[in-house]
Write a structure and sequence with these properties.
The structure is a single chain. This protein has 202 residues and is an all-alpha fold. The chain has one domain. The protein is 69% helix and 0% strand. Helix 7 packs antiparallel against helix 8. The chain is globular, with a radius of gyration of 16 Å. 48% of the residues are buried.
Length: 202
Amino acid sequence: MIEGLQSDGVTIALTIALGYFLGSIPFGLVLTRLAGLGDIRAIGSGSIGATNVLRTGNKPIALLTLILDSGKGATAALAARYVAPELAPFAAVAAVMGHLFPVWLGFKGGKGVATTFGALAALAWPAALAAGLTWLAIAAIFRYSSLSGLVSIGLSPLYGWYWGDMPIAIATAILAVFVWYRHKENIRRLLKGEEPKIGKKN
């Protein structure tokens, strides 16, 4: 991601900082509180993402969370591309890091799938489309949102390389590592057969 970089250090630092703070906006937490659903961190997996919001039973709020979480990843990457195209992968990584580890919530955020999809869509939309179709296929077959996210994000570096370039592949590979890390409890439950399927509140 560094080779051929033309931007100065200040621009890079600002891009990363703004990407992080944009990504750290906890839309799931804000929306569920505004809707009178309580603290989403006390429900289900405790995540602030759309999948856990769906466990409240409020589908419109879950959909809005999905859109906004995806949108902040896309916005960060697109804004960076407008300033300096080579910085878009940096902004994408920073936005997802903000979602995963928001300073406002003690660095305990969401799982990062939707924000990664949004960032990938801004970097190389065919790659995001392929990842999205992968998610849908795995979800349709196995009915596990976490498994769908793990597989689709795990394949995103390959998609990013094929439909984008090496910096995008490297950025998505970095994100895949962190997203998988945030899913460690889901992986444990999947292996034990204890992971709730899509549509279940618990």
